[in-house]
Write a structure and sequence with these properties.
The structure is a single chain. Helix 13 crosses helix 14. The protein is an alpha/beta fold. The chain starts with a helix and ends with a helix. Helices cover about 45% and strands about 20% of the residues. It folds into three domains: about 160 residues, Rossmann fold (3-Layer(aba) Sandwich), CATH 3.40.50.300; about 160 residues, no CATH class; about 100 residues, no CATH class. About 40% of the residues are buried.
């Protein structure tokens, strides 16, 4: 095959995935992510947008949506989208780019290159760094959690990137996928009963896009189970070359069944009969894959924070439904959903749980800079009388210990809203009671 014919074959294959070739299916636009990536690409600061996230969270569809937006704004020929998981696409960035320039003929001096699942290309980072330094293109790269996550992308690109993490759907996105548009407060109140019904569904089945679009209950569970198996095998066992498959899977299942719980590596080691170092190592690998994440205890002392138990959460609240009865775990699922939303809005470095020496526990402590901004409890309650007194007592006690920061006190409820001044043993403070659905739609 001649060089020219080879280039034509490359473009013929790429035409299936680009707007200068055909119209791509882009799904329901995830506007927040598209805007963030567009802001990086259009910024005067020359940075590469690096996109990562848990498997099946919708990265490739977000990339298509960015490609569509760029094509509309700058012209179809000035955008090249390549998904390297496609078997027909050559894993040679130089050949692909040369074929694109010579045959498609972009009109911009710096066209937009969207390189999806870039980890499939050997030594891709050298080519990307070179293109970036020579200012020949504006680029987005995505990495599967199987081989490439945020920390690795930052290392390979030596600070040339701005990371964007893609999560499963937020509750607002979940409503949009179900054709429920919420654009103002009036619409929220007009659709309140429908919103509450959807929230229950969201808690039960989660926010992976494929799951949301699938209406069969049995198929949803089968797909979720397949996700978990794929993440464990491809993103953990193969990636980190783990030989003790059974121990890793046992630990993962333990975390998924005991989500929103305090976890001590030492106690787990004794319970599971696995060395502490192995528990720590496997736990880190699972967190890198993003199937779970840990929230540490808040402490002004670094040592106490490191040795204290962590709270474990699942990246999507639908996953525990594979293992547990929904009706018996609504409160924990609410807490897990709040944890995901806090992770989405803040970095993990700013989200903690708080526990006093007297044993009073607050589900979440949110930092902003050096200041403790919020203390949050989560309660499956429809009325003030349904809230356990210990929830309020823990907030009052924690605020007393952190009084110099004057944190806001919030109890997240199912559907109870109020603001009360609560007194207990000489301690007094105002607590906001906020419905979870309203907080998620703010």
């Amino acid at each position: 095959m001649s060089y020219i014919t080879n280039m034509e074959e490359i473009i013929h294959t790429l035409a299936e995935w680009n707007f200068w070739g055909k119209r791509l299916e882009t799904g329901v636009e995830r506007e927040g992510y598209v805007s963030r990536i567009m802001n990086v690409l259009e910024s005067r600061i020359n940075k590469i947008a690096t996109v990562f996230g848990v498997r099946r969270s919708g990265k490739s569809f977000v990339m298509r949506q960015v490609a569509k937006k760029l094509s509309e704004r700058y012209g179809k020929r000035n955008v090249l989208y390549v998904n390297f998981e496609e078997t027909d696409i050559p894993k040679d960035l130089g050949k692909i780019y040369k074929a694109y320039v010579q045959i498609v003929k972009p009109t911009l001096s710096k066209p937009f290159l969207l390189l999806d699942e870039i980890q499939e290309v050997d030594e891709w980072e050298r080519w990307v760094r070179s293109m970036h330094e020579k200012e020949k293109a504006r680029m987005v790269v995505t990495g599967s959690s199987a081989k490439l996550m945020s920390e690795e992308l930052a290392t390979l690109l030596s600070g040339r990137d701005i990371p964007v993490e893609i999560f499963p759907l937020s509750f607002r996105e979940f409503l949009e996928f179900n054709n429920v548009k919420i654009s103002n407060l009036l619409e929220v109140f007009a659709n309140k009963e429908k919103i509450l019904a959807y929230l229950r569904d969201f808690l039960k089945n989660g926010g992976f896009p494929e799951i949301v679009l699938e209406k069969s209950e049995s198929l949803r569970k089968s797909i979720l189970m397949r996700y978990v198996e794929t993440i464990l095998v491809k993103d953990v066992i193969r990636r980190f070359k783990i030989r003790e498959h059974a121990k890793l899977e046992f630990l993962a299942n333990f975390y998924l069944e005991n989500f929103a719980s305090l976890i001590s590596f030492n106690r787990l080691s004794k319970f599971l009969k696995i060395p502490v170092k192995t528990v720590e190592r496997f736990s880190k690998f699972l967190a890198v894959s993003r199937i779970i994440f840990f929230v540490p205890k808040f402490s002004y002392g670094l040592k106490e924070k490191e040795v204290s138990p962590r709270k474990v959460y699942v990246i999507d609240q639908g996953i525990p439904s594979i293992f547990l009865k929904f009706s018996e775990n609504i409160g924990k699922l609410m807490e897990n959903l709040v944890a995901i939303e806090l992770l989405r809005k803040h970095s993990l470095e700013n989200v903690y749980y708080f526990k006093t020496r007297e044993g009073y526990e607050v589900d979440f402590l949110i930092k902003e800079g050096l200041r403790v901004k919020q203390l949050i409890q989560v309660s499956y309650a429809n009325d003030f009388d349904e809230i356990e007194p210990r929830e309020c007592r823990a907030l009052l006690h924690a605020k007393e210990l952190l009084k110099k920061d004057k944190p806001e006190l919030i109890i997240m409820t199912w559907d109870y809203e109020d603001e009360k001044e609560i007194s207990w043993f000489g301690k007094k403070a105002c607590i906001k009671f906020m419905p979870l659905w309203k907080w998620l739609l703010r």
